[in-house]
Amino acid sequence: MFNEELAEIFSELADMEEIEGQKWESLAYRKVSASISGLGEDIREISRRNELRKIDGVGNAIEKKIRQYIEDGRIEAYDNLKKKYPIDFKNLRKLQGMGPKKIAALYTNLGITDIPGLAEAINSHRIAGLPGFGVKTEKNISSALNVLMSAGPTRIPLGKAYGDIMEIKNFLDRSGLFDKVVIAGSTRRMKETIGDVDILATARDWTRAGNAFTSSDYVSGIVVRGDSKITVNLKLGITCDLRFIDEGSFGAALQYFTGSKEHNINIRNIAISSGMKLNEYGLYRDHVQVAGKTESEIYRKLGMDYIEPELRENTGEIEAAIKGDLPGIVGYEQIRGDLHVHTKDSDGLNTLDEMITRGKENGLEYMVITNHSEGLKVANGLDDARFREMNQRIEEASSRLAFHALKGVELEILKDGTLDLGRQILEEMDFVLASLHQYISNDESENTSRVLKAIKSGLVNGIAHPTGRIIGKREPYKLNLDRIIEECAINGVFLEINGDPYRSDLPADIVRRAKDSGIMFSLGSDAHNISGLTNIRFATAIARRGWLEGKQVINTLDFNNFKKLISR
Ligand SMILES: [Zn+2]
Ligand SMILES: [Zn+2]
Q: How far is the CA of 444 from the centre of ligand 1 (A)?
């Protein structure tokens, strides 16, 4: 959380220096902001070891600023510029196509400092008349604003909050004041975005335990404090409910507060039709509790199998649980490899060695290094020669670090559907992911035929982030997904489930739709730095929410069987 705060400050410094015309400073701040958000540990620890200068992009001047922030909670240079530009950069920047220059022009000409101000200016058509804007730009900003708003102002991608939520849980566990701390709600169901956090706990002394929570570093303010429920605002930007529960009702409360609402309504009706009553305190028959301590006894007493939280959306899981034919969905611990990883060599932040070392620490058995190909200029894509050099290093690092790193590529599908690299170099690769990043058309058949051509090329193992959507920023590409799924099945090409928190692509409902088509799925973190490697957990969560079994996910194979499967 601290790292994110600091990274945001440097990012705003970069924006403001760019407006000031200080190109060099702006670039330096931009770089250090990216480095800090990619750190695998709290920057305060690094500072304590006196190793700030080891961070990419940190020189003398920036080191001083970081120290100032750690010690005083402020950076003078930032405060001074912020007086000149009192702008909500963080949220305005979320709009597709909105850079510092445009934000500055909106501020100096129309005094716009935030999203509501911008929305108002759009409604009164004051943007189109600005120099350098025009009717088309106004339209683009307006539709970007709609995408941002439709994501809901307070929902954030699970992957952006998950680390912090687990930190809060660990903090409460370690305080010694709680007997049990469980995260419920949409976080437990591993929804792709969450709107708040629900924590259920048991403790002997509720007052002391509650105090430990409200006075912790994670809380920015108390909203309501009752006897058994405390609502706070988290620094994370969302609210959190902490509820104290009696041991005898814990399962019922967990079931109730995990949701989803639709799932719970259906479950409660089943209880009623069996002559019972279910609420957050227990399952009752004639006012006598027949279950309540654990969730599984509640489901059992209702005549059905236990339902994993990720499946609780009332989309057929209850009916399947009654019949006893829920699928054995893939487990988090079954994932052995990560099939989409970038390094510094294209647009990542960490070196090959650093990515491998972290992957190994995280318990992975293998990892495919999939840097961008040359056609993606903005990501410093590699050409044949650079890939050959990279591939040598991958082999060398694999044996030196005793880890299976594989040679791969995230390959551009070009405008006409041909592939960005030639047959020869692609045949030297272990694993080829193809993806659309550029020349996206408004015409469904145009986009679809490019992807189909790549699938049929015989040179591609999988299609990365197939829909191209970015949560809160970009709608999915117009694609005929049923055709793509069908052609993947015919050609033995995998569809990726990308675990990047903003991508979450494929989305779970499409995974579910493709589940019985005969295709297999490949999971990738799309990590661009060491901390991004944990995204593989969110990819796995989507697979679970899409009802996939272990055998449908190629990452569950051990290294030898994975190697066999991908030999083209
Ligand atoms: Zn990509
Ligand atoms: Zn990627």
A: 20
Q: 34 C-alpha to center of ligand 1: Å?
A: 18
Q: Give the span between the Cα atoms of 389 and 114, in whole angstroms.
A: 47
| Sequential DSSP letters for 148-213 | HHHT-SS-EEHHHHHHHHHHHHHHHHHTSS-SEEEE-HHHHTT-SEESEEEEEEE-S-HHHHHHHH
pLDDT tens per residue, range 432-477: 999 999 999 999 999 999 999 999 999 999 999 999 999 988 899 9
**Which listed ligand is nearest to 526 at the C-alpha?**
2
Q: State which fold the 2-150 domain adopts.
A: DNA polymerase; domain 1 (1.10.150)
Ligand 1 centroid to residue 524 C-alpha, Å: 11
Output the CA 526–ligand 2 centroid distance in Å: 5
**Cα 342 to averaged position of ligand 2 atoms, centre (Å):** 6
Q: Determine the distance separating the centroid of ligand 1 and the alpha carbon of 436, expressed in angstroms.
A: 7
- pLDDT tens sequence across 118-132: 988 888 888 888 888
Ligand that comes closest to the CA of residue 437? 1
Residue 212 has pLDDT above 70, yes or no: yes
Ligand lying nearest the CA atom of residue 409: 2
Cα(410) to centroid(ligand 1), Å? 7
The ligand that comes nearest to the alpha carbon of residue 376 is 1
The CATH class, in words, for 249-323 is alpha beta
Common-topology check for domains 2-150 and 156-244 = no
For residue 434, the ligand closest to its alpha carbon is 1
CA 340 – ligand 2 centroid, Å: 6
Centre of ligand 2 from the C-alpha of residue 338, in Å: 12
Q: Which ligand is nearest to the CA of 413?
A: 1
What is the dihedral sign for C-alpha 75, 80, 83, 85?
negative
CATH architecture observed for domain 156-244: 2-Layer Sandwich (3.30)
Domain locations in the chain as residue ranges: 2-150, 156-244, 249-323, 332-566
Each residue of 396-439: pLDDT tens digit?
999 999 999 999 999 999 999 999 999 999 999 999 999 999 99
Per residue in 282-338, pLDDT (tens digit) is 999 999 999 999 999 999 999 999 999 999 999 999 999 999 999 999 999 999 999
Does CATH place domain 332-566 in 3.20.20.140?
A: yes
Ligand index nearest the alpha carbon of residue 340: 2
What does 427-493 look like in DSSP terms, one character per residue?
Answer: HT-SEEEEE--S---S-HHHHHHHHHHHHHTSS-SEESSTT--BTTTBPPP---HHHHHHHHHHHTP
List strand residue ranges (DSSP E) for 235-305, in order: 239-244, 277-279, 282-285, 288-291
What spacing in Å lies between the alpha carbon of 73 and ligand 2's midpoint?
35
